Amino acid sequence: MNIRKVLIPIDGTERSMKSIELVKEMYSPEKVKVEIIHIKELVFIDGISISDEIKISEEYGKKLLEKAKESIPGFDVSLYFGFGYAGDEIVKRAEEQDIDIIVMTKSTKKGFSRIIGSVTNYVLKHTDSIVMIVPE
């Protein structure tokens, strides 16, 4: 049996959680290994980032990932939290983990790169994985 590796980036919005719902609808638990990823972009001021902001962001991100994992019971799920530019980190993680499919939601904004989202657009251009874009 060929098990697919699926990467689901989430950003904390209800919209991003729709990717998890799609994976649950499309695959049975024994057919996929799922990794849910949350990347926190840090803002540096004069080359300095505030350590409390990092700690709070990491705590929030890990809670968000645990909540997402609870929404996909029965599946083999791993979690990944990181800091950086979301597009870069998603592409890098997909390559490192030999991901078959990245499942992302589209943006609510107008215009092509805004329709699918700038992060999704970046991932589409830079990954070798299949990218599935979940509509609203």
Summarize the structure in words.
This protein is an alpha/beta fold and 136 residues long. The chain has one domain (4-134): Rossmann fold. Helix content is 43%, strand content 24%. The protein has 5 helices and 5 strands; from the N terminus they run βαβαβαβααβ. Strands 3-2-1-4-5 form a 5-stranded parallel sheet. Strand 1, helix 1 (14-26) and strand 2 (32-40) form a beta-alpha-beta unit. Helix 3 (86-96) packs parallel to helix 5. It is globular. The termini are far apart. The model is unreliable at 109-115 (pLDDT under 50). It comes from Peptostreptococcus porci. Residues 3-135 form the UspA domain. InterPro entries: Rossmann-like_a/b/a_fold, Universal_stress_UspA, UspA.
What is the second-level CATH architecture?
Answer: 3-Layer(aba) Sandwich
Percentage of β-strand residues: 15-25%
CATH homologous superfamily designation = HUPs
From the 3D structure, determine the CATH topology.
Answer: Rossmann fold
Model regions low in confidence, pLDDT < 50 over at least 5 residues: 109-115
- Helix/strand-derived class? alpha/beta
Q: For the record, give the distance between the C-alpha atoms at the N and C termini, rounded to a whole number.
A: 32 Å
The strand count comes to 5
